[in-house]
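Take a minute with the sequence and fold tokens given here and flag any structure token that looks odd. Thanks in advance.
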Amino acid sequence: MNSFTINDTINTLEAIFDKHKHERICVLSTTCTGKTTLIEKMPHWIDVDILLGKCMTADEIAFCCQVPWTEEIGEVYGKIMHERIQVEPGHPLFCSEIIDCEVVVFLDIPDDILSIHCKKRGVDFEYAVQIKNELKKDWDNHKLKGNKIFYYVVMAE
């Protein structure tokens, strides 16, 4: 397991994306990992929240944005993602659940750095860790199936 600076992370992700440019890629990461910063630097990367904001009703958004995250919220959110979102080759999708794709990248962040990012953004750290743990479960379940290519990258800043 290696950890990277933001530029190293971008270069690593770009290398993965270039290697799999004709495949659909999901990038899993919890809140406050740095997705927005990465996406701002690489416009062909897509944040699922932007896509979901365009295809969810106000009631669905209100329900799915509740804190703390519950299994019921996760089920509704996942159902909406699977029904309404598609990953396109050449446009890696940063998301919080693995949807139909060939390649999955888990963009992890150590808890001490996640805590700092959460404080800066005013996000509850325990909530971010809860989401991270749910992502890890999804990652582990899909790895057991063995039908995708998996990469694990750790942010260092």
Observations:
- Residues 25 and 103 are 5 Å apart (CA to CA).
- The beta strands are 3-4, 25-28, 46-47, 93-95, 103-108, 149-155.
- Residues 3-46+87-155 form a domain with the Rossmann fold fold (CATH 3.40.50).
- Residues 125-145 form the longest helix (21 residues).
